[in-house]
Amino acid sequence: MDRRHLLTLALGATTVGACGGRSSTTGGDGPIVVKVADAVRATNPMVAAERYFAEQVGALTQGRYRVEVSAGGVLGDDNRVNEMVRTGQVAFAKTLVSNLSAYDKRLGVLGLPYVFAGEKECMAALDGELGRRCATILYESGLVTLAYFYGGERNLYNAKRPIQTPADVKGLRIRVPQNIVSIDIVNAMGASAVPMATNDILSALQQQVVDGAENNTVYYVTEQHVVYAPYYSRTRHQQSVDVLIASRKWLSEQPADVQDAIKEAGRRTQTEEIRLWALESTRSVDAATAQGAKVNDADVDAFRRAVAPVLREHRGAFGDLATLLPDD
């Protein structure tokens, strides 16, 4: 390894350390240590998948690289970390694909309401041309797609009342991810959308800054939102898709065999994440109920009608990517 490469890694390590993570090390004969960042808590199965990714990278590089998982937003919120990955300050991160629409609005296509019937249809699209096109867009933005993570169906939950129809949503302040599609969906339902970073939701619920949020049951339980928003209503308005990304800048500086090993680790991790998610998703419903959640099935057809204008409005913004959606 040449001196210039060592200097690049050392500078990156200093930056990461300054952002709350542990510095990367490359000294002596020890492994190169890099980080994968995530905003969700360590109890989330996606973090378990990231640990699996770390194990695979270690094995496939024969111990030359060690990946440390930094969960719980310790390196910053999604937007900050995504930019750190893009600029090469952090090697890897996992984030909601729609969060990356700040780099290219077409990535919001995966957040459109009611376009996937469920996990199989969603992941089939991501394993096909739609996933490849999104990966190309990310690459052009400085990010390498290593794996798509399935994040379940997103549903509404709140502290006030069970939700059956859009009429029940009126007057509620609902936290949403910081992207325009999510904002428009929840506003169309009749609520007031409050865009907010993942790390801030729990305190916002505790302080009643928001009345609720929307996400899958795994997130609802592992982030302890069930304690403050016990009404969980299955609106099934989105299939949640996250992506494990690498810094194109950082990855391009690594030896070719290491690049191949990291990409192979990503492919293996996508399969493992889907397995882990299925196990925890089943458990999370029982866990939510045991913690006092009142779970109900909402009138999905009524919500589908309510958000239909959002689907029509945004389809045009995504160009030919929208033609690759299953219902086209």
Automatic annotation (TrEMBL):
- Keyword hit for Signal: yes
Entries under InterPro entries matching the protein: DctP_fam, TRAP_DctP, TRAP_DctP_sf
Give the PROSITE patterns listed for this entry. PROKAR_LIPOPROTEIN (PS51257)
**Can you supply a Gene Ontology BP term from the record?**
transmembrane transport
Q: Which UniProt keywords apply?
A: Signal
Query: GO CC terms for this protein?
Result: outer membrane-bounded periplasmic space
Please give the superkingdom of this protein's source. Bacteria
Report whether Signal shows up as a keyword of the record.
Answer: yes
UniProt name for this protein? C4-dicarboxylate ABC transporter
Origin species, per record, is: Paractinoplanes rishiriensis
